Amino acid sequence: MYRRFCCVRLCSLFIAIIAVVSTAACGGSSSSSGTQGGGGTPPPPPTPSPSSIDVTTYHYDNLRTGQNLKETALTTANVNQAKFGKLGELMVDGKVDAQPLYLSNVSIPSVGTKNILYVATEHGSVFAFDADNVSGTSVKPLWQISTQLAGEGPSDDRGCSQVTPEIGVTSTPVIDRTRGAIYVIAVSKDGGGNYFHRLPALDLTAGKELFGGPTTIAASVPGNGAGSTGGTVTFDPSEYNERPGLLELNGTIYTTWGSHCDAGPYTSWMMSFSADTLKQTSVLNLVPNGSDGGIWMSGTAPAADAAGNIYFLIGNGTFDTTLNSSGLPSQGDCGNCYVKVSSTAPLKLIDYFTPLNTVDESNADEDLGSGGPLLLPDVTDASGKTRHLAVGSGKDAIIYVLDRDNMGKFSATQNNIYQQISGQLASGEFAKPSYFNGTVYYGAVSDSIKAFPIVSGKLATTPSSTTSIQFGYPGTTPAISANGTSNGIVWAVDNAATAVLHAYDAANLSNELYNSNQASGSRDQFAGNKFITPMIANGKVFVGTPNSVAVFGLL
Fold first, then answer.
1. 462-518 pLDDT per residue, tens
2. Residue 91 is part of a domain; what is its CATH number?
3. Contact (CB, 8 A) for 61 and 54
4. pLDDT on residue 88
5. What secondary structure does DSSP assign to 265-316, as a single string?
6. Cα dihedral angle (65, 181, 120, 91), rounded to 10 degrees?
7. Which pLDDT score is estimated for 48?
């Protein structure tokens, strides 16, 4: 049983009224209710702001488009430093590396109906806040729980500076509203130096544990890869962190695992679990007979299409250049690949792409896995054929556009893919592209955000517009808010000690609507946090920081 820190908010306000009557001074009676000196009826709890959006997963949908098309409050006319700014910060107990999630109109016993913001921290906690009560810095959560068992604390950083100084919940959780649960992967360490990864499902209204959880993560597969013994590769919890966000598809929770930097013997794990029982349903190792192949994607998340196929990019690692009759790596080792995995158990690699120089890229730590996936809505090419496309990039700064029906696999002489664009990203991609209204937006390292329209089923080879500033390491993952196709706004965080939230007109990125340095003094300032992406819902923008969620909205 988890330790729980119940912080259910008391929404009743007790008012003491002292009436002082002085007809000489006031010229009349002070009584207005017939009761002098008594307490009135406390006002009812405030009703939530009208909202119709739920943000239950990383970047809004399983395609990972990054677009919220139900934003009616924020427009290109009112997002400016005079009307828009920081409303407050929701303080928590650790770094917020996971994207916050949002549910509209949740009924909580004894509290009422609320729009709720769910926040996970690297201290291993999960918080639920009233998303409409965000002013100041002393807002109390509706509830808070710790994911660690008695005698445990968060993991140390394992000597890796990527997630530091502690590791609790790194990846973006996923919410299943029908099941009433938020699913989280949490890591902890006990007094004996043992590490644990667990999958709990927490009740959305109170944070209590559901479905007999948590499940402790364990796995093994046949193979002779790094860390294997006697022909078996075993998942060592001390060597991994679940950095990419969770994916839920057809009642199954999917997890993907990265290493702590490139340290220790590690391979490439994917696991699935039942959303109803939390029991493990399948395990796939994508480098079972080699080494490395961590799945990290700068904290983005695997994507899935309507047919139930899952897509993600793998980091530097062993790739078998000898292929079997199906064109798949002969020993099952697909390091440095953009993969397509069947979601049905058992998990199975069914297609992939890796560049012709994949071995050299892995040896130079110039891997595809630094970037995350984007699946495009169906597009029509110049011949009238409907295309199902995927976009992704890594440290080589090349934009790869893949046909999801034929991803290209491996050739030592040429990349047999749908489209390849070189020379347009200034540096590597440590983020992911996003999509809105027929345009793909990129924010690579030391580069401006660039808009690439889709024309006749292909990305334009040069951007239609760019921002006037460049974003330093690790670049930026754009998020888009819009009301249908109107009032499109591209939001991005420039990470620094004092970070900057930017808002751009999605139709013309040279038109900056707002940034958090424009207001005088420190009104809109907040601390930076690596790899964070803004989340926009119901007129507010939520940004994770090292100890809070900064909340922006109309002033």
1. 999 999 999 999 999 999 999 999 999 999 999 988 999 999 999 999 999 999 999
2. 2.140.10.10
3. no
4. 97
5. S---EEEEEETTT--EEEEEESSTTSSB----GGG---EE-TTSEEEEE--S
6. 110
7. 82
- Token pair recorded at residue 165: 């100084």
pLDDT computed for residue 190 by the predictor = 98
- Which tokens in the block code for residue 378? 């169906």
Number of domains into which the chain is organized: 1
Give residue 210's domain range: 4-554
- Residue matched to tokens 């979601």: 343
Place of tokens 């109109």: 105
Model-level pTM? 0.91
Residue 361 pLDDT: 97
Q: How far apart are CA 377 and CA 10, in angstroms?
A: 45
CA dist., res. 175 & res. 248, Å (int): 8
Angstrom distance (rounded) from CA 206 to CA 203: 6
Between CA 146 and CA 124 the distance in angstroms is: 6
- The C-alpha atoms of residue 390 and residue 64 are separated, in whole angstroms, by 11
CA distance 124 to 168: 4
For every residue of 127-151, DSSP letters joined together read: EEEETT---BS-PPPSEEEE-SPTT
297 SS3 class: helix
pLDDT at 189 over 50: yes
